[in-house]
Request: fold
Amino acid sequence: MPIRPSHAARMLRSRLARQIAEQTIANLAVQGLGAITTFSFVHLLPPHQYAIFGLCIATVGFVSVSSDLGLMASTSYFWRHQVTGGAPFAEHYAAIKRVRLVLFAFTGSIGGGVLAWLVHRESGDWTAALSIAPLALALAWTQILMAMSVAALRLSGDLRRAYLADLSGAVTRASLALAAFALALQHAWFPLISLGIAALVTLSIVQPRLDPAFRSRGHATRDAVRQVVRYIIPTTPSTIFFATQDILVYWLATLSGGAIVIAQTFALGRLGAIFVTLSAIMANVIIPRIVNIADDRHALRTALVTVAAIGGFCSALLFVAWMVPGLFLILLGNHYAGLAEPLLLCLGAASLQVVAHGLGNMNRAMGWVRWETPMICVQAVLVAAIVPFFHFSTTKGVLGFNLVLNALWLANIAAVTLLGVRQMRRRGQSPEMHPEDQPETPLVS
Reply:
């Protein structure tokens, strides 16, 4: 007996609700363990060592994002391209890995060099600076491999194995953090090593279960590399801007405020990470779902409803932080007490970032990237114009600047979304295929 459309729709909604519930439970477990890791190091490390650790993590983020330039999003795009009848995915994935390695070599040399200089500026010790920078770069590459593998597992539909891998990595990180706390290891290098070990544990769980298309060591054809590069060209300016946004905040704090401002900014940022991890629902459940939906309108509705729900939850948490800031600050310990106003600035910026990240993931999965370049040029001009109005010698000034950066970023992404929806509606009214919709030449700017 055939399944009626209404019954099929209810089944799909029920499956989506179950997946979101599973993701939420897994995410809460991972974040609970992550909180143990984070706040163990916040309490354990002296402010000057925590400042160095913060610079290392900011550099890892810079290298990871700037070596991506939209490549992770292109994985979803080319997978969906195969689902809708396009070219085989394996050759595109081989091309994605090759381009990622080349970009990492370039951005890693820049990020590692700047990190070594900043650590030397803070500590006055070139030996420490030149030893911790390679450690940060090794962590960045390990986490890149981990992120690509876990994302591949989710695209192939094995969400529960992905949750298990994330949970195993979180258990490893928390265990090593508690060991460091028990042994009083008050140096910035140990958290970096513990994060690297956790990434390797996650990789060991994910790799054996990957789809053959992701495990293949096939040759990246010139045509596949060309298509991948053509995909990321429109997203490159915005990705570079996003990659430099966080590191710019820390660099300005380093040059103007010193170790205390860096440590306070990074410690409050760990609370902001509670918000940012809500975007895991979008990245880990909704994006793998919409890339397997051939109907653009259905995919769009699914993504927008999720983004709106995440934004509402962030607003509720922000209200609690405004009413009872001590509930959050107590997690950071005595070194970071009395930072109620900077806390709100930090969490407000994190809320804007979560919504922008969700919309951005949706845009790239839908292939709406051609407008990113002109939008990011406007944003860059605005950022350059507002820098003179902020003072980076205080934590409040640094976090206020970060809040404005994320507000501009959300406005940018929202504009791209509106233009993408407009294009989708126009395309639905006309049988003509636009140049960027051609299967073999995606997203020509």
Q: What stands out?
A: The CA atoms of residues 216 and 340 lie 51 Å apart. The chain is about 80% helix and 0% strand.
